[in-house]
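Quick question: what would this complex look like in 3D?
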Amino acid sequence: MKYQIIKHKAATAEPEKTNLKLLQQDICLPAAILKQSALQHNVQWMQQFADASGVRLSPHGKTSMTPWLFQQQLAAGAWGITVATAYQAQIAANAGAQRIILANQLVGAANMAVVANLIASGVEVYLCIDHVDNAKALSAFFHTEQLLLPVLIELGVPGGRCGCRTNQQAVNLAQQIATLPGLALAGIEFYEGVISTTDSVLSVRQFAQQAAALCKALFRQELLKYHNILISGAGSVWYDIIALELTKATVPSTMQIVLRPGCYISHDQGIYCQAQQAIDQRSKLATKLGQSLRNALELAVYVQSLPEPGLAVLGFGKRDAAFDAGLPQAIAIYRDGQLISNQLQQCVTTKVMDQHAFWHYNSQIKPKIGDIVLLGTSHPCLTFDKWRSLWLVDDNYNLLQSVETFF
Amino acid sequence: MKYQIIKHKAATAEPEKTNLKLLQQDICLPAAILKQSALQHNVQWMQQFADASGVRLSPHGKTSMTPWLFQQQLAAGAWGITVATAYQAQIAANAGAQRIILANQLVGAANMAVVANLIASGVEVYLCIDHVDNAKALSAFFHTEQLLLPVLIELGVPGGRCGCRTNQQAVNLAQQIATLPGLALAGIEFYEGVISTTDSVLSVRQFAQQAAALCKALFRQELLKYHNILISGAGSVWYDIIALELTKATVPSTMQIVLRPGCYISHDQGIYCQAQQAIDQRSKLATKLGQSLRNALELAVYVQSLPEPGLAVLGFGKRDAAFDAGLPQAIAIYRDGQLISNQLQQCVTTKVMDQHAFWHYNSQIKPKIGDIVLLGTSHPCLTFDKWRSLWLVDDNYNLLQSVETFF
């Protein structure tokens, strides 16, 4: 048969180019697809933003966990790749990253062993620390392995997630780190995404300024012992403000400013689309760069059942897409390879179950079972992690190749 | 180094037995673990329930998508494996299932090709249909492939998911199926889990009775043409009532009653635990079988950060466990291989982010960074699908082997 019989959901394991056409039903659906043109645009756009801002880019790899995408980001000029776990650090290193920020405390012997292996093989892995107990445990482990571990102190906010709550706590921790033979303090890490106040813009600015002041204090006290020193913040929502504040603050001139947005790679049509619209409005640089980030990640699914007038059951569910920040919503509907409509604003996905979605369509749309619906999502991290591979497509939804994820 | 350096999250690809010990930090955490004794108990328990009820068991495989578990279920006497998609059918067949219920309409050429391949290789795959358009498309495809496809008409409820809304609609569809050369009607499928009324018990009973009446009507009209005929319902919440009602209804005596619970395999400590408690109260047979289903699926994670008094950040998040039906809650905490406490009812997971969880502990518990916390989850389907492999453990959390998932 001519159809692609899949090994994992929706894709082959083989990376080579294909002649398959999504809209001709050549592959099993549901499938997750990445639009090549939008991906390339996003990779270039964010790198240009970082370059023009005078900061380094270490994209958060946890969003996609797709080595092929890491390679696109590195090839475009990214300084390194950021990850959340030791496992993810291994995957990033396998993809070729020579600098990795593990934006978390590293806990547990097996996890430490993964990072020690990477450092021993020449990869620079920066870890975050917020507690002296963790500092002692790490120093003991890495000193035994005859390795020197570069660490960043995590600065947090009261009521937030991880991190020292005050600059004084951070300075105290830095003084303790200075006594530990396995560690070398390399700077400060923070994540402003946990801030939630009535004036978040102001709070984010102040938090960045606080982090910069902390760096100056550590620098003056000669507590930054590693040969590279850096300050790192910023997810995909506040990177413009973090870049502005840190460059304005003239952190010690030898210090590199490293931003860590992740979701920009695929972008979305939900919460990150909204966040980017705010950035486009407030950032002169974003405006100057022209066309903003584009949604590159879509689901391709079948109309599976038409049980009642106005209700279609679509062939996807919680197993296939993020559902924690708004449900996937339809972009276009195709039949026999032809566009029926891309004006679906009045058609709404109202509910998802594990393997089904409820789609309420308006009377202008007359879907048939077997029609292909393309949907955009909100919160790419939790869509990527549903797939072992995604299809890279051109603007006509011809399948170019499959790319593998490593969650 | 002695530690297990992982290929995928938390597990090796190798199925052979290990001497690794979870509580000695021999593996990377977070990890998902399956308790062998609880799994074996659950597999036996549900098979005994089905046998004693005089019905067949075709466990829904979408819950675990773990071939090793499918094999345990089949070896214990399961009639077949149920799945939700063509891809899942392929995985179930690869695991050795000779009978598969695909409890959905099959839509799209590539998806049909997967099922055609399975049927051509001798696997019996029963599909669900609720619309004449789908019936015609399937007949055209399978007749061209010179295959005869056994189909079940899906009976639904108004306001529900897929399925014909009335028995008359179903009879009309059966008459149309009888004219199509690629199809042979094999019975009725329904899913009572979509019913949500003020008296669900009564509604579920009535729905099962309606399905049985439909079968009798189709039988009388000689519309059931396949050589095996069956009626199939029941998820993990109402299987006792469905078994009772269908056996009481004396559906045509040549008809097999097939139940399709899935979540019982691992069970949980959330919504399915509650559902089973209701079954244990209302079902004489469940009481007679003795100890009920046990939770077999746990997360093992580290205390990752202790940023404020009473708050621990645990090293797992939405990337690692279901969060749509209650958050994972702690069962026990260990330090250096020793139990600190398994009385954690007053410690509460209040929030999960992608890779972090907020755990509020009470003053009796004094966690340290690096302590291992074991948690139970709610809704196993969405925890299984976060992992490429899970660790099978004995009652002391010694690691026996890893088992692979195929999502």
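Answer marked as accepted. Chain A has eleven helices and 18 strands.
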